[in-house]
Amino acid sequence: MAATATSFQALIQPYSNYLSSSSLFPSSTSCIASPSSLLKPKIICSSSSSSSASPLTVVNGNVERSSVVPDRKEIRLGLPSKGRMASETLDLLKDCQLSVRQVNPRQYVAEIPLLSNLEVWFQRQKDIVRKILTGDLDLGIVGLDTVTEFGQGNDDLILVHDALDYGQCHLSIAIPKYGIFENINSLEELARMPQWTKEKPLRVATGFTYLGPKFMEEKGLKHVTFSTADGALEAAPAMGIADCILDLVSSGTTLRENNLKEIDGGVVLQSQAVLVASRKSLIQREGILETTHEILERLEAHLKAAGQFCVTANMRGSSMEEVAERILSQPSLSGLQGPTISPVFCKRDGKVSPDYYAIVICVPKKALYKSVQQLRAIGGSGVLVSPLTYIFDEETPKWRDLLQKLGL
Ligand SMILES: Nc1ncnc2c1ncn2[C@@H]1O[C@H](COP(=O)(O)OP(=O)(O)OP(=O)(O)O)[C@@H](O)[C@H]1O
Ligand SMILES: O=P(O)(O)OC[C@H]1O[C@H](OP(=O)(O)OP(=O)(O)O)[C@H](O)[C@@H]1O
Ligand SMILES: [Mg+2]
């Protein structure tokens, strides 16, 4: 087993079994057995209202919950209260006709009028994850990085939708471009540097005090120590506080501006916004499965539609089959399940017959112009392009997955 010559060393070693799993959500992992939870003292507080009540254990800000969900009627959904995910989350819900009605921005409770048994609670992202674990929230929309860092492999967290298509970033190690790191370009090379010893370990600055040590341990890096700060981590190497950082990257601008570079094999996690839920809530709380099903169906149908345009065009031809053959001869015109073709009837010389055909296809947004060119090439005219609100599949694949995860 790899040893880390640090203040983490004593903490990591006894828990190496928990750290060695490569799965994000190993079924047997407990959230209390983690290096970061052990960084802070366990606070044991007794309930003052009842002498017989069992003490609450607060671990790394997470209150361990009982196996029974708190007794309340409403289903609670946590949404980011501020920051870069907040407005995009509200926009996504609005696009799914699930607009959130908030009386004023400083009020932390709101509603989605279409979902009558649901309360929305605006919270910091990490608190959404913590509160799902304590049972104070049932569902939440947050970044996968936050779920993974603060969920710490807890089996109660279930990803209902793992790709909401915004908030994309990755958690990555970055090292200086200069000095002893000039020719270092991979995690392997970083690990092999002779500079890191028991007495003088590699110093990593990160806000991810659970995932950081876990990743280094899994990659077999010896002699690593971690320090933490709440932001502007990119300054740490230049300030001499750390040798490298482990932080979120999206455009890469902050790294570049601070003379830092990513390295091969240094990505810990790819992240985007996800819908997460408490397994216990999903199983025990009345009405939650129906509400989750509706949210999930709308999300999936909207996300599928968001990448497509609906294209209609007119086309002359001798029959529907002949028109279909011409359309299907073009690679960008096959639509979702093939083209819809309807005859457009005209009266000529007193006789009603199909004069031309109207075709309807779904086209990926990225391929729109190519599709229009191909339509024209086979005699299409009067091409109309409109956005799509939803594409409902016969069955929601993610719903099937969820039922399977719940053993239902
Ligand atoms: N470039 C990025 N940097 C940081 N987070 C990003 C980036 N791009 C997307 N994200 C997502 O946004 C989340 C962070 O949002 P934000 O910075 O608003 O919150 P925060 O500052 O971490 O929250 P808090 O103030 O509660 O600590 C990340 O967890 C991640 O999922
Ligand atoms: O790759 P980029 O697009 O440059 O984004 C990455 C930066 O954005 C985040 O910081 P944030 O803006 O949240 O400020 P913070 O450092 O105070 O956390 C993150 O911690 C990085 O510093
Ligand atoms: Mg930052």
At CATH level 3, the topology of the largest domain is D-Maltodextrin-Binding Protein, domain 2
List cofactors, ions and other ligands.
adenosine-5'-triphosphate, 1-O-pyrophosphono-5-O-phosphono-alpha-D-ribofuranose, magnesium ion
Distance, first to last CA: 39 Å
Tell me the strand order in the biggest sheet. 5-6-4-7-14-8
CATH superfamily assignment of the largest domain? Periplasmic binding protein-like II
Describe this structure in words.
By secondary structure, the protein is of the alpha+beta class. The chain folds into 3 domains: 107 residues, D-Maltodextrin-Binding Protein, domain 2; 102 residues, 3-Layer(aba) Sandwich (D-Maltodextrin-Binding Protein, domain 2); 81 residues, Alpha-Beta Plaits. Helix content is 29%, strand content 28%. It is built from 15 helices and 18 strands. The strands form 4 sheets. Strands 5-6-4-7-14-8 form a 6-stranded mixed β-sheet, with helices on both faces. Strands 11-10-12-9-13 form a 5-stranded mixed β-sheet. A 4-stranded antiparallel β-sheet has the order 16-17-15-18. Helix 8 links the parallel strand 10 and strand 11. The protein is globular and about 95 Å long. The two termini are 39 Å apart. The N terminus is likely disordered. It binds adenosine-5'-triphosphate, 1-O-pyrophosphono-5-O-phosphono-alpha-D-ribofuranose and magnesium ion.
